From TrEMBL:
Chain positions recorded as substrate binding sites: R113, R119, N151, R185
Family: Belongs to the LDH/MDH superfamily. MDH type 1 family.
Active site per the UniProt annotation: H209
GO molecular function, one term: L-malate dehydrogenase (NAD+) activity
Natural source organism: Jatropha curcas (Barbados nut)
UniProt subunit comment: Homodimer.
Catalytic activity: (S)-malate + NAD(+) = oxaloacetate + NADH + H(+)
Protein name per the record: Malate dehydrogenase
GO cellular component terms listed in the entry, alphabetical order: mitochondrial matrix
Enzyme class: oxidoreductase
Domain annotation Lactate/malate dehydrogenase C-terminal: ranges: 179-342
Amino acid sequence: MRSSLFRSVKTLTNSTSSSHLLRRGYGSEAVPDRKVAVLGAAGGIGQPLALLMKLNPLVSNLALYDIANTPGVAADVSHINTRSEVKGYVGEDQLGQALEGSDVVIIPAGVPRKPGMTRDDLFNINAGIVKGLCQAISKYCPNALVNMISNPVNSTVPIAAEVFKKAGTYDEKRLFGVTTLDVVRAKTFYAGKAKVPVAEVNVPVVGGHAGITILPLFSQATPKANLSSEDIEALTKRTQDGGTEVVEAKAGKGSATLSMAYAGAIFADACLKGLNGVPDVVECTFVQSSVTELPFFASKVRLGKNGVEEVFGLGPLSEYESAGLEKLKPELLASIEKGIKFANQ
Ligand SMILES: NC(=O)C1=CN([C@@H]2O[C@H](COP(=O)(O)OP(=O)(O)OC[C@H]3O[C@@H](n4cnc5c(N)ncnc54)[C@H](O)[C@@H]3O)[C@@H](O)[C@H]2O)C=CC1
Ligand SMILES: O=C([O-])CC(=O)C(=O)O
């Protein structure tokens, strides 16, 4: 996606008759209108994500919702001369309008970590925020693809599923925990260590999105490199602790926002491409799954016109990865069950 995003941005900036080109999007075919809503759009992730979605020619309408400050963000982003029409919505009274007609809803609403906290420490605040937003989604845009960024993803996705089940709108093909940042990090760290061009790197990352539940499969990384087991362990640990690395560097001023916005934009773009019928769109994401005995699990997923088209298995694992997989299961299951229990209280 990275190359196509920048190809399209280049197309936009080089174009003099931009409206015609913009409607044509990535290829030579006209692209359908697509509405994307960002909930939490005035936040650290929300603002750069709003910018990146404004640059995406697959988007025709961009709804920016938050409990505060969205009028300014929307006014700012709306001046960018790209295809989409931008509207800001502020406060719960305007949530329905923000959501109505959305094809993709991206949720980076909620509090971020401070040093010393785990993602699970965010549960008490973010679980309620996500629950409320998902209730509104089931009412105003039950068919949208939901991209859950709010942490702890291992619990917020099961919360969303339960809310949708209660409302009778649950479709497991349309709910995604965004784990793309783990893949982005794994690719960057692997490229650095293996001394291969980062743009060519692919690394699946499976499991969940917290600590040891993040399991990068470096044995499947391409281009192949002859890394020692110490190198693989160090890369694995760095990928698992990538979020904490940023939290500590920001020293109380939040967690990853810019790299997350980039990752969120990649994943939303993949969802839009899938909806538009682009073939072979594959991303790692945390979805309802039968790949393991856990009800939700991140693995490679093919995206299509209805959301999830196919959930891929894990492929061959190294001994180190197999051990990591067994180790992560109890923690991931506990986080999933915590979410389910909360939603049904
Ligand atoms: N999935 C992932 O890989 C990642 C997830 N995150 C998570 O994303 C979330 C957001 O992080 P930041 O943007 O840095 O936080 P932030 O505090 O900068 O922004 C959050 C925004 O959510 C808004 N908000 C709060 N309650 C809301 C509600 N009921 N409806 C709509 N908006 C609401 C706030 O007003 C604020 O603008 C955190 O939970 C963080 O842990 C962060 C990085 C990576
Ligand atoms: O670490 C955090 O709290 C934010 C996050 O999920 C990440 O950066 O991967």
